Each structure stands twice: as C-alpha cells, then as structure tokens.
Amino acid sequence: MAPTKKLPTPLPPKRRAADVAYETLENLISTLQLQPGAQVVESELVQRTQLSRTPLREALLRMVSIGLIVQQPRRGLLISSIDLADHLDVVQTRRVLERLIAGCSARRASDRQRKDIVLCAKRMVKAAAADKLEDYMLADIELDRVNHAASQNHSAVKAVVPLIVQCRRFWYAYRHAGDTTEGAAAHLQLAEGIASGDEAAAISGADRLSDYLQGFTERVIAN
User: Cα–Cα distance between 88 and 74 in angstroms, integer?
Assistant: First the structure.
C-alpha cells in the first residue's frame, strides 16, 4: 500500500494592504501619536508609515466613516477630538455589544480560543503588576482579536471595533486616572467566563469590564 502523502500546511491568507494601513493609522490615533485636532497630511503619513498612497487613502476613508477622522470645509481632514460627554455614550453603547459578543464567544469558541483568551488576560494581569503599559495594551489588543474571532458575530464585531479604538484613545489621553490592575482583573473575569462556556459568566465579565470603563470615564469628567 502506497504511503499517504502529507498535505502541505495551508499558508495564512495574505493581508490586504488597506487593512495593514488601517491598523497602522488606528494605532497612531489610539495611542495619541496623531493628536486630536491635528490636520491629516497624506504626504506626511506616507513618509511616516512607508505605506503606499492607495491603501492609505482607503484606510483614511474608513476612518472618516467611523468618525475617527473628520472632514471639514477648507481645513481638510482632521483627527477627531475627544468629547468627554459623548464618551459616556460610547461606553454605554459598547456595553450592549460586549455583552452580545461575550455570550456568542462562550457558546462558539474553539478549545484553542478558550485557552488563548485566558492566556491574553493573564498577560494583562502580569503587565499591570509590572507597570508595563506597552505589554498591557498589546495583550489587550490580542484578547480582543481572539474574542471577536471566537464570537463569529461579524455584525457585532464591526460595530464594536470603532468604539474600542475610541476607548483606547480615551484611556491613553487620561491614563493618570485609570487603574491597569483593575482593568486587567475585569478582562480576566471576561476571559474565564468565555473559557468556561458559561454564557451568563461571560456576560457578567463583560459587564464588569464596562463598569470599569464607565467608572474611569466618570472620574475623568468629574475632574
């Protein structure tokens, strides 16, 4: 009997240049490397990011469509400002979507995804304890990616991602009022709820995260 041929491992899908450009701009905006109110100059962005003009323009249009960049007469494109009062609405809207996504992930996540999301949350806890902001945010971003993929709810994910970016930018702007230890604990409860497959536990974790974000926002507004 002839030996069975081992099939080659499929290569991961090639990422679209526009998606790479979008993620690059998203990172620059959410980490305040592009300041609220700053003018967007395409030639400067090309030089800064080493991206081609066509995918960069597509990414800019996506940013306009979700409100991270605004277009004003005679001034062109500007990075949107941070509105404190409006941010409460952002957090409250995100709460509804996070509950939905958490419940879906608890039901639909693969074994690998359940393990990965807890690992991400534990990395956040470790980074918070060591006061390593960059490691904390990288683990946070990866946790979101795992959670969103696990949920298999593309409509909810599409709606929540712009809100997450706004929350991340808000956090960078006012992080002196934040507590990464508290945030990491909320993410860990969410991750463990999803990993358990218990939908109610996952939603409870999502609520704790939203409570943390709302409390943080209210402290900033009060000051």
Answer: 31
pLDDT tens across 3-22, in order? 444 444 444 455 678 888 88
List, for residues 134-184, the tens digit of each pLDDT value.
899 999 999 999 999 999 999 999 999 989 989 999 988 888 767 899 999
Contacts of 67 (CB under 8 A, 6+ apart): 80, 162
Q: Does domain 84-222 have CATH number 1.20.120.530?
A: yes
- Using a 10 angstrom Cβ sphere, with 0-12 exposed, 13-18 middle and 19 or more buried, the burial of residue 9 is exposed
Q: Which fold has domain 17-79?
A: Arc Repressor Mutant, subunit A (1.10.10)
Same fold, 17-79 and 84-222: no
**8-13 contact pairs (CB < 8 A, 24+):** none
Contact 205, 186 (CB under 8 A): yes
Confidence band, pLDDT 50/70/90 cuts, at residue 185: very high
User: Residues 213, 91: contact at Cβ < 8 Å?
Assistant: yes
Show the DSSP H helices in 14-108 as ranges: 17-30, 42-49, 53-65, 84-108
Domain limits of the chain? 17-79, 84-222
- Alpha-carbon span 144 to 134, nearest angstrom: 16
- The separation between CA 125 and the C-alpha centre of its own chain, rounded to angstroms, equals 17
Q: 17-72, pLDDT tens digit by residue?
A: 888 888 889 889 888 999 999 999 888 998 988 888 998 999 899 889 888 899 88
